[in-house]
Amino acid sequence: MRVLIVLLAAVLNTYAWADCRSQVDHAQLSGKGALCLLGFCLYDAQLWSTQTPPSYDTPFALEITYRRAITRAKLIETALDEIRRLNVPPPPDSTLLQWQEAMTPAFIDVKPGDTLCGVYLPGRGARFYANGQLTTEVDDTAFAHAFFDIWLAPGTRAPALRRRLLGESH
Q1: Which tens digit of pLDDT belongs to each residue from 44-73?
Q2: What CATH number is given to the structural domain containing 90?
């Protein structure tokens, strides 16, 4: 009986993780890498897309599995800081407040092993998952571009991770 429960849990877990990637028809792994700062690895990332390198013309999924505990508030604060830094001039405060409110249901307090996933939807915005469960959809293309640019824009703070995600080096 115990073996059956373990097998069933594994099947259900695989199905739950597929929810995010299944939003991108025929997705292939574009690239993967880890974000490590001063010897501390924060997370592992995978980018799934129908083309390599992915573009904002087609859907893609960015899946992040955390190695460290980080609060939802810190995830949102860091995302907003990076959006401000990458966009010159930065979006108006009113827009950033709307985006902060949009990210609140998207994220959870993460602990090691938790996975957050964002799916870029061309012409629509983004859909977010936490541990395989849909958390929210944000119908705002400007937000979606700004959010995914944190990892994919040339000005990212993690250029080596960007290259790996885009399939430029493994």
Answers
A1: 999 999 888 888 999 999 999 999 999 999
A2: 3.50.70.10
